[in-house]
Amino acid sequence: MLQYILRRFLLSLPALWLLVTFVFLLSKLLTGTPGEEQMLQENGGYYSKGSTESRQLVYRNYLNRTGQNLPLFYFSIKASPEPDTLHLVYPAHHRTLLKKLYWQYGNPEAVGRYYQSIKALEAALPVAQKASLQPYMDSLYSTTTPEGLKAIAATPSPSWGAQASELTVAATHLAAQQKSYTFLLPSFRWHGTDNQYHSWLIGVIQGNLGTSFRDGRQVSSLLYDAIANTWWLMLASILIAFVVAFELGMLLVMPQSKRLRKVLLPSLFVIDSIPLFLLALLLLVLLASPSFLQLFPVYGMGYHTLTGESWLQRAGVLSQYLALPVICLTLSNIPYLTNLIYRSFSEERKKDYARTARAKGFSERQVIRKQLLRNTLLPTITVLSDALPIIVAGTISIEIIFAIPGMGRLLVDSVLARDYPVVLAIVLVVAAFRVVTYLLADIFYSLADPRIKHAAS
Amino acid sequence: MRKVSLLLPIFLCIVLSFCSQPQQGLDDVKVRLAKEPENLSPVNFTDAQAIQILNLLYQSLLVVDLEEDKLKPALAARMPDMVRQDSVTLFTYEIREAASWPDGTAVTADDIAFTLKVLKAPLLNNEQMKPQVEFIRDILPDETNPKKFTLVCSGYAPEMELLTGDFFILPSNLLDPQGLLKAIQVSELSDDLSELENNKNLKAFAEKFNAIDFKSDKAFLQGSGGYLLDNFVPNQYIVLQRKQNWWGSKLEQSHLVANPERISFHIIPDNTTALLALKNQQLDVLGNIPAAEFDELKSDNKFAANYNLYTPDSYEFTYVGLNSRSPKFSDKRTRQAITQLLDVNSMMKVSQQSYATPTASIIPPSLTAYYNKNLKAREQNISQAEKLLTTAGWTREQDGWYKSINGKKTQLTIEVIYRAGSTNFENAALVFQQSAAKAGIPVNVQAVESNLFSQKSKVHEFDMFFRSLSGNPFVFNFKVLFHTSYANLGGMNHTGFGNQKSDKLLDAINAAATTEEKAKLLKELQTMLYEEATFIPLYYQKERIAVHKRFGNAKISGLSPNYDVSAFTLKN
Fold first, then answer.
1. DSSP 3-state of B552
2. B158 contacts A134? CB cut-off 8 A
3. Among A48, A201, A366, B359, whose Cα sits 20 to 30 Å from the Cα of A331?
4. What is the number of other CB atoms lying within 10 angstroms of the CB of residue A202?
5. Among A48, A299, A320, whose Cβ lies nearest the Cβ of B273?
6. Domain boundary, last residue among A180, A205, A230
7. Pick from B491, B459, B481: which is nearest to B529 by CA?
8. Which of A171, A205, A239 is the last residue of a domain?
9. Pair (A239, A299) in one structural domain
10. Does B9 lie at the interface with A, CB-CB under 8 angstroms?
11. Domain for residue A16, yes or no?
12. Do residues A308 and A190 share a domain?
């Protein structure tokens, strides 16, 4: 058995690695980087706090400092005329222009020369004329068609100086040197180990999940805090849900529970169809509001004045804060579980061994609890291994509504702030957790049904 | 199993028996934060939540007194003396005699120099604040008075006085006990910094400074403000404790106070939860209450017995931008016609439940000295809009308005964009869509993802947008928004407003010596903006705040964070 588990565990490692690699690459393909919006915040206003240029400079330095300017992966495949350094061009509209030109003309040298000539002209324009020539400069930064370039080559006034004639030459040159369709040729570029993925992966292997972009804290300590809270929430709700579901399932399957079935099954269906966040808000308004029943505190996990007491007292305090969230999560899981267990009991009840037990004189209650229980465990183990990730997803809304600092909230906050190191670490933890639950499920299978153990070995 | 079924109700009873209401500390002000501040670094904070907390721990040279919405000296003894020379402006400050750090040492010009170095140096986590002090080129200490110094700033802009006093001052003794930054001069920290990046001292300092946990490290999060960080529980609460014998409280200045013994900030992301916590009296202060809920609270007598509700006029307004560069809207009369379709009152009613003040100009109507009263707030007038369209050369056909532009028959259609996720803008845009439909103009309303929205407005790829802007009552430098030098691609003048005359006017506003002159020029600018109709302010919002009745002196204001929690006094 041990050997089997070890083998399963080792087999799951490549799957874990693939998953996290995909998430890493996909998340970095999203537009925007952490801090970008704040650093380049350009809402204008009653006065300006720093010029656009200095903000962009600061932002580029930030990318350098945090290693976000490095290539993403060991290699990249791009359209052949597009240079590697395009993503370092600022401001954004220059980058857009260059990309369009590279693709359209397929001639990096000619494009580079043309772009430099526009910039030189812009820098050389006399201040007095700048305002009146603004539309013209804007058109330079947005024109990409050969006809447009020809028109540009015809317009500049010689009075603007040598830069104007250089622009004319560069534009004509670019239009003449067009190498169409070269963008269809992919070019493979090797970046070596100096890339973002490599440094992240090496860190993870060495047990360093990195630091959060938002507050510079170690991701591992952030995760530790968050998981601790979510863990209790999950554990309590799963345990209660299972116990209640089993009790209900056994109650429903009794022959005398016909009336109960008629009432309970539809009402479970109703509870199941209420979205979790709505259920949470409903319970909150009903059980934690002075306008109805004020039984529970509304939010959080207790306040600072309570620290320094014995663990029992703290557990007592914590339990009153976690009671409502746990009830919510439990309620949301009970309908499905109860139904499953009830169905499974009804199946087993019809089997021969159950009839034999009844013939031997066992009461219906004894038959259910002593004979059928073990066999109905099998499908529930499958559900248990699947339930954990689903409950993590469920805790997101619970944690936000009840203001509990857990994994779900951490994930949402980090995704919104594009705090990739945290997002990746959470994905890694959830995936690893899933692997572990599958292994646990295997172990439980063999415990519940020894026949499976023999088949596995 | 039977035992389990018995145990379950017992367990539930025990849980319920635990449930009681949390104890109230009377002199503990509990404030709600919708999200945790990303960090509490005084040189790299990113959000309003951090500013609110940092303002209690640290001080700047100047501070806004929310009681009067006026700029007042905080660490500075008085407002700075300003001298304008050719290409530089000099601001001379003197620090208050009593001002001191928690360890008892005095705040001196050395600390200001140190702070500027930390703000401007490379290699440090200071990206958020760095651009804001870029204009301060040097600091000249006074040789006779260690508390006096002069800041040398490049050029001149009216906001400079505010900005020279608007950064948190750091204790050099605490953060740089070895004096690693002493040898570096502030003047070296402008322009090219590549050489400094290899400076050994700076590298050593950066390593130490960047490693500080500016969120929970009580030893380093210490400033000259009236409070100290007492407890930080991630994503739950942040507690500040009043300093014993704080220097500021001896001055008896109403804007330098630290009244409550404790201030705790509770992080509650969800609005409904926050409201319930308020009703349960688990919170003392709640801002940003949704309008519908605010109305409900107003009519709740039980709630009114415990809380005061306030609706100060904020300095944030919603406006419409029309792209005057687009051939469809280049004619002023077309834009004016579109303004006649803006039903501001309905927009306010739908999105703000009328907790807003309509405005005809960018200046808030509450600033009566500067607001141009001759302008009328926009109202819906469809027949007037149709008349204007006709004079602008549009002809009404069966399915809309047409005009020949550059030899091509073009229909007048408008695509309205707004930042996705804002229901306020969405509602306003839908109200506009309805009015436009009455006038026969097809309007397409589209929510755009935040990054893309900024991108689109920067490269002028829009017809019309809804967005909001935050202002203040003391500095009016509208050059960035309206000057033609900012109208380039990527510039901040998105709507393309402006000509030589308006540029001159903007410069004159910045140069105005007296309030009267400034008011006259600002009114002129407002008229110009009104007529040009590219940048169309709709309404100023009202904030909606609840404060517990056991506190007085809340200093409610339209300026963020809308109350001064350090001034709260406990009523009997």
1. strand
2. no
3. A366
4. 11
5. A299
6. A205
7. B481
8. A205
9. yes
10. no
11. no
12. no
- Chain A residues whose beta carbon lies within 8 Å of the beta carbon of residue B280: 288-290, 294, 297-298
Inter-chain touch B476–A402, beta carbons under 8 Å: no
Whose CA is closest to A211, among A414, A383, A69?
A: A414
Record: contact B215-A138, CB cut-off 8 A = no
Of chain B, the percentage scoring pLDDT greater than 70 comes to: 96
Say whether both A230 and A185 belong to one domain: no
The model's pLDDT over B313-352, given as tens digits with 9 standing for 90+, comes to: 999 999 999 999 999 999 999 999 999 999 999 999 998 8
Pair of tokens at residue A144: 């990409």
Judge: A46–B477 Cβ closer than 8 Å, yes or no. Answer: yes
Task: Give the model confidence (pLDDT) of B234-251 as tens digits.
Answer: 889 999 999 999 999 899
In total, chain B counts a number of residues equal to: 572
Do residues A182 and A295 share a domain?
A: no
Range of the domain at A72: 36-205
Exposed e or buried b per residue across A13-29, where buried means at least 16 C-beta atoms within 10 angstroms of its C-beta: eeeeeebbeebbeeebe
B400 in reach of chain A (CB within 8 A): no
**Is any Cβ of chain B less than 8 angstroms from the Cβ of A247?**
yes
Query: Which residues on A lie below 8 Å from B268 (Cβ)?
Result: 299-300, 403
Distance from CA of B457 to the nearest CA of A (A): 11
| The two structure tokens encoding residue A442 | 């295997």
- Asked if B537 reaches chain A (Cβ–Cβ under 8 Å), the answer is no
Note whether B17 contacts A: Cβ–Cβ < 8 A. no
User: Is A5 inside a domain boundary?
Assistant: no
Strand ranges across the sheet with B81-84 = B81-84, B88-94, B148-154, B136-141
CB atoms B451 and A281 under 8 Å: no
Establish if A32 touches chain B: CB-CB under 8 angstroms.
yes
**Which pLDDT score, from 0 to 100, does residue A93 have?**
84
B 159-188 residues with CB < 8 A to A? 159, 162-163
Asked if the Cβ–Cβ distance from A216 to B25 is below 8 Å, we say no
Chain A touched by B130 (CB under 8 Å): yes
CATH code at A297? Answer: 1.10.3720.10
Do A367 and A410 sit in the same domain of this protein? yes
pLDDT given at position B373:
94
Low-confidence ranges of chain A (pLDDT < 50): none
Ranges A147-156, B207-216, B496-505: which has the least confidence: A147-156
* Domain assignment of residue A20, yes or no: no
Residues A370 and A426 in one domain: yes
Structural domain total, chain A: 2
Cα–Cα distance for residue pair A436/B282, rounded to 1 Å:
40
Q: Is residue A413 part of a domain?
A: yes
Do residues A197 and A267 both lie within one domain?
no
My answer on whether A307 and A397 are in the same domain is: yes
**Three-state SS across chain A?**
CHHHHHHHHHHHHHHHHHHHHHHHHHHHHCCCCCCHHHHCCCCCCCCCCCCHHHHHHHHHHHHHHCCCCCCCCCEEEEECCCCHHHHHCCCHHHHHHHHHHHHHHCCHHHHHHHHHHHHHHHHHCCHHHHCCCHHHHHHHCCCCCHHHHHHHHHCCCHHHCHHHHHHHHHHHHHHHCCCCCHHHCEEEEECCCCCHHHHHHHHHHCCCCCECCCCCCEHHHHHHHHHHHHHHHHHHHHHHHHHHHHHHHHHHHCHHHHHHHHHHHHHHHHHHHCCHHHHHHHHHHHHECCCCCECCCCCCCCCHHHCCCCHHHHHHHHHHHHHHHHHHHHHHHHHHHHHHHHHHHHHHHCCHHHHHHHHCCCCHHHHHHHHHHHHHHHHHHHHHHHHHHHHHHHHHHHHHHCCCCCHHHHHHHHHHCCCHHHHHHHHHHHHHHHHHHHHHHHHHHHHHCHHHHHHHC
Beta bridge partners of B154: B88
